């Protein structure tokens, strides 16, 4: 199992134990250092007492130093059977007087010896020893000289005591870590119970239950629950879009498909070539209308919030899209005897939006104009700057028969058709335009030209820099 897929509890325990182990190791190093220092301080007092006892027995007779070593002073250091004691008395100039002549001398860093004693570690006869050294004056009537006393002790007892202190501290640290791990293990289990209850609640839900999660959860999980609720909302919108598309398709396609089937069956029984040609022409027209209806249904699904084309908005060039779509409709306009043209902005005009949906909006507006305008009409696609509002206005204007004012609000409804115009539309084009405009946080307006009949559809988009400034 990969680390990122492992148990959350196990990961938390590991992340807790690793720092604890590191901190405990550092603490044990400090304990070891303190144990050695404390042990040395305690045992060094005994070394100093022995050295002082020996120094007190040094006398100067006839110009010669003599020492009567009190063995009681050495016996106080040999209370442990595993340790041995060594001593040396000599002059400050290095002349040996008595004791063990080969004891390690005082290191250069501690020389010259003064009144205060010094202590240092060394190796003597293959064993680690601790040595205490002091210097004193001895005088007679005619002479005075300085001597030094070295007293050494093997470090067996010191080492054992330090190790015992360290082992005791290590045992306490290990016990603390184990207890902390157990407490955290069960504590995390208690802390994760709200998530377990949340899991159980989600498991009880039906596949279509996309209501927001309202369970009490820890603060650290609220953002995750919020993201899940946002996902539920988007899934609900997508499901609603799919259900609406399915219902619309089932309702709207049933009749034309039944008509196609009827015409096909009539054609199979017809022997007259002329009537058969008429039936095939009717089938071709119905097929074209059904294909257009299916395309409009798909466009409507894409235009709906979180629809089939619910991609995030990005910077797009509205001028380029407008001129491209207008150019693509020129041949259709020529075939219908309609003058289709573009005027207005020619430089790049950036807005935040979905290029596919903007193309669909403009195609529907131009298609409606070309469909309902008679031969000889003019259709103009216009893109204009609105400096005051820092926006751009897209306009599709024609001089056709127009739409009566009483229908202006109804034409944007789904599947609404004006019976008076005599055209067999599906009633989705302007509804798609309205939904796409709403998705881009704007509206589509229908007005009548001032100087002639016809329709004027306008949609206003904020420029991309204005949207960025508002978001910031």
TrEMBL record:
What keywords are assigned to this protein? Kinase, Membrane, Phosphoprotein, Transferase, Transmembrane, Transmembrane helix, Two-component regulatory system
Which Pfam families does the record match to this protein? 2CSK_N, HAMP, HATPase_c, HisKA
Where do the TM regions start and end?
12-29
EC assignment: 2.7.13.3
Keyword Membrane in record: yes
InterPro entries hit by this protein:
2CSK_N, HAMP_dom, HATPase_C_sf, HATPase_dom, His_kinase_dom, HisK_dim/P_dom, HisK_dim/P_sf, Sig_transdc_His_kin-like_C
One molecular function GO term is: phosphorelay sensor kinase activity
The source's domain of life comes to Bacteria
Q: What is the recorded name of this protein?
A: histidine kinase
**Source species of the chain:** Thalassospira lohafexi
């Amino acid at each position: 199992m990969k680390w990122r897929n492992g148990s959350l509890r196990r990961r938390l325990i590991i992340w807790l134990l690793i720092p604890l182990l590191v901190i405990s190791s550092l603490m044990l190093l400090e304990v070891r250092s303190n144990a050695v220092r404390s042990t040395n301080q305690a045992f060094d007092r005994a070394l100093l007492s022995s050295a002082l006892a020996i120094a007190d027995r040094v006398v100067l007779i006839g110009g010669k130093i003599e020492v009567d070593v009190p063995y009681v002073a050495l016996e106080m250091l040999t209370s442990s059977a595993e340790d041995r004691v060594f001593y040396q008395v000599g002059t400050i100039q290095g002349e040996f007087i008595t004791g063990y002549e080969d004891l390690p001398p005082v290191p250069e860093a501690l020389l010259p010896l003064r009144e205060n004693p010094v202590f240092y570690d060394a190796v003597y006869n293959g064993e680690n020893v601790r040595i205490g050294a002091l210097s004193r004056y001895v005088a007679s009537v005619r002479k005075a000289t300085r001597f030094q006393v070295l007293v050494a002790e093997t470090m067996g007892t010191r080492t054992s005591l330090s190790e015992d202190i360290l082992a005791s501290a290590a045992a306490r640290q290990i016990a603390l870590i184990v207890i902390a791990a157990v407490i955290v293990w069960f504590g995390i289990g208690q802390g994760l119970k709200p998530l377990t209850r949340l899991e159980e609640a989600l498991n009880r839900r039906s596949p279509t239950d996309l209501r927001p999660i309202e369970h009490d959860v820890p603060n650290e999980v609220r953002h995750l629950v919020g993201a899940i609720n946002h996902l539920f909302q988007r899934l609900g919108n997508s499901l609603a879009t799919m259900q609406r598309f399915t219902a619309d398709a089932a309702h709207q396609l049933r009749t034309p498909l039944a008509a196609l089937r009827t015409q096909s069956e009539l054609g199979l029984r017809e022997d007259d070539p002329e009537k058969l040609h008429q039936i095939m022409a009717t089938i071709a027209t119905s097929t074209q209308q059904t294909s257009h209806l299916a395309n409009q249904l798909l466009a409507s699904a894409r235009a709906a919030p979180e629809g089939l084309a619910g991609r995030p908005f990005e910077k797009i060039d509205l001028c380029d899209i407008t001129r491209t779509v207008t150019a693509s409709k020129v041949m259709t306009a020529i075939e219908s005897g309609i003058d289709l043209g573009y005027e207005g902005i020619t430089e790049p005009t950036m807005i935040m939006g979905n290029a596919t949906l903007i193309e669909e909006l403009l195609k529907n507006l131009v298609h409606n104009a070309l469909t309902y305008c008679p031969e000889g009409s003019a259709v103009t696609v216009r893109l204009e700057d609105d400096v005051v509002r820092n926006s751009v206005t897209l306009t599709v204007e024609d001089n056709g028969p127009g739409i009566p004012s009483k229908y202006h609000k109804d034409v944007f409804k789904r599947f609404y058709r004006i019976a008076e115009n005599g055209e067999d539309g599906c009633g989705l084009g302007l509804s798609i335009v309205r939904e796409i405009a709403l998705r881009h946080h704007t509206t589509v307006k229908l007005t009548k030209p001032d100087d002639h009949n016809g329709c004027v559809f306008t949609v206003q988009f904020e420029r991309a820099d204005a949207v960025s400034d508002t978001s910031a």
